[in-house]
Amino acid sequence: MIAVGDLAPDFAALDCHGQTVRLSELRGRRVVLFFFPRAFTVGCTIENRAFRDNHERIRELGAELVGVSVDTLTTQCDFAEQEGIHFALLGDDERRISRAWGVLWPVLNIDRRVTFIIGADGVVEHVIHHEVRVYRHLDDVLKYLQAHPAPGAPSASA
Questions:
Q1: How remote is the C-alpha of 102 from its chain's centroid?
Q2: Residue 97: what pLDDT?
Q3: Is 77 an annotated catalytic residue?
Q4: Rounded CA separation 130/47 (Å)
Q5: Looking at the predicted structure, is the pLDDT value of residue 156 above 60?
Q6: Is the dihedral of CA 105, 111, 116, 118 positive or negative?
Q7: What value does the mean pLDDT take over residues 42-68?
Q8: Distance from CA of residue 50 to its chain's centroid?
Q9: At 115, phi and psi to the nearest 5?
């Protein structure tokens, strides 16, 4: 699995808005990249709703939000529509992104529940890995972003 200090592996994939998301094109901004096992499952729905409900707060703290699972793009888009998700959700049914990031469960061949915070320079700053405690991903992201503000972003006291 990609670790703190590693250069974030680049990828390009379509999101549900028909836009190509290239990680390298997000350089200059911090990125919260989260992997989750499957759309429409209970834990993943809870996790995505938490990120959805705090999407603007994450942007205010200077980060872009991108979610990835091994679902097809069509499934991701159906999920995004049903849940009112407006940040980029990427389908990785060929598992190229997931393999590059080292997040696939060996036997199950689905993503582990892992969140990466990538610095504006493209280097991984923080890794969050909780399989069951789905709310911890959002909590840990907000705590990290508040404690390590990006230039121009509000600090924890804001």
A1: 14
A2: 97
A3: no
A4: 11
A5: no
A6: positive
A7: 95
A8: 12
A9: -120, 130
Question: Are the CB atoms for 134 and 43 separated by under 8 Å?
Answer: yes
Residues 71, 95: Cα–Cα separation, whole Å: 9
| Cβ atoms < 10 Å from Cβ of 98 | 23
* Number of other CB atoms surrounding residue 37 within 10 Å: 19
Query: Would you place residue 142 in the very low, low, confident or very high pLDDT band (cuts 50, 70, 90)?
Result: very high
E strand or H helix at 33: strand 30-35
Q: Angle at which helices 42-53 and 135-147 pack, to 10 degrees?
A: 30
64 touches 30 (CB < 8 A): yes
Residues 87-141 have pLDDT tens digits of: 999 999 999 999 999 999 988 889 999 999 999 999 999 999 876 677 778 899 9
Confidence label for 158 from pLDDT (cuts 50, 70 and 90): very low
Rg (CA), the chain: 14
Give me the catalytic one of 44, 66, 68, 138.
44
Residues 89, 51: Cα–Cα separation, whole Å? 11
